[in-house]
Write a structure and sequence with these properties.
The chain has helices at 9-26, 29-42, 48-60, 67-79, 83-100, 113-123, 129-144, 161-171, 178-189, 196-216, 220-223, 226-241, 249-265. It has 266 residues and is mainly α. The chain folds into 2 domains: 5-144, no CATH class; 161-265, no CATH class. Helix 10 packs parallel to helix 13 (249-265). It starts with 8 loop residues before the first helix and ends with a helix.
Length: 266
């Protein structure tokens, strides 16, 4: 079925998230601030776009809940959004993006595009009842499928934290780990929900990183290397000090780097 991605609220948001990520990686502060402004203005609390996005996210970010029930509730919530107001809001953000960032924004690759397109068609009042049932069935099967994760990481024998950060900053843009994507997504979302979800995520993620890094520091490969052992303890101390630190890009980069470090040491 025909699908207009520019009228897909979740696709627009995901595209902006990826442009924000790229801006952080490349140090393009002007573009970063422009993306933040667009998100803040158009996805503010209780706006048509924010309400529509919440319906999408409740489905494609579903975690261990009954997907069929979630879809049912999301469809009900979506029907309560004024279609005229939503169309106007989409038109406004499309115009803003084209003018402020450029139409190429909509050409960005979004990994879960097929799922977003399926949800959009399922929500559409132009889709027949029969096709809606088929789309919902397809969506349930897709989201219920178990994802196999294969871990084949080799232990490293000499990793100095500073050299790791340098390599990470130059390479991680196109090779983000799942946990790094989750962090960046929560960071972007923080601009529209007063950082509530980001704070919750960071609290859990930092605790996980501290536990795994502490366990990794006991390995012979680290214990036998005084430099690596010292750097590991410094990273642990950095994580501990985050309790009194305001969440900013410095914290973001530290956590991103530590996520990669923990994965390497696993």
């Amino acid at each position: 079925m025909k699908h207009n991605k520019k009228r897909n609220t979740a696709f627009i948001f995901e595209a902006l998230v990826r442009h924000m990520t790229d801006s952080i990686v490349t140090g393009d502060l002007k573009r970063r601030d422009t993306v933040i402004r667009i998100i803040r203005e158009h996805f503010k609390s209780n706006s048509p776009l924010k309400r529509d996005l919440d319906c999408y996210r409740s489905i494609y970010e579903n975690k261990n809940l009954d997907i069929s029930k979630i879809i049912t509730e999301a469809k009900i919530s979506n029907r309560l959004i004024d279609p005229t107001g939503l169309f106007k809001a989409q038109t406004n953000i499309i115009h803003d993006i084209n003018k402020s960032i450029g139409p190429a924004t909509f050409n960005v690759f979004v990994p879960n595009y097929k799922t977003l397109a399926t949800i959009s068609q399922m929500f559409s009042d132009k889709t027949s009842p029969k096709d809606k049932v088929l789309l919902e069935t397809q969506l349930v099967q897709t989201l219920s499928a178990k994802k196999e994760t294969v871990s084949n990481m080799k232990p490293i024998d000499n990793l100095v934290y500073t050299s790791f950060v340098k390599k990470f900053n130059s390479e991680y843009g196109g090779k983000l780990l799942d946990e790094q994507k989750a962090l960046l997504t929560n960071y972007i979302t923080s601009f529209v929900d007063n950082a509530v979800e980001l704070k919750i995520y960071l609290n859990e993620e930092v605790a996980r990183l501290k536990a795994e890094l502490s366990e990794a520091s006991k390995k012979d490969v680290i214990q036998s290397d005084s430099v690596l052992s010292e750097k590991t303890q410094k990273v642990l101390q950095k994580l501990e000090n985050m309790k009194q630190t305001t969440i900013d890009e410095s914290v973001l980069r530290t956590v991103l780097s530590t996520q990669k470090l923990v994965r390497e040491l696993a």
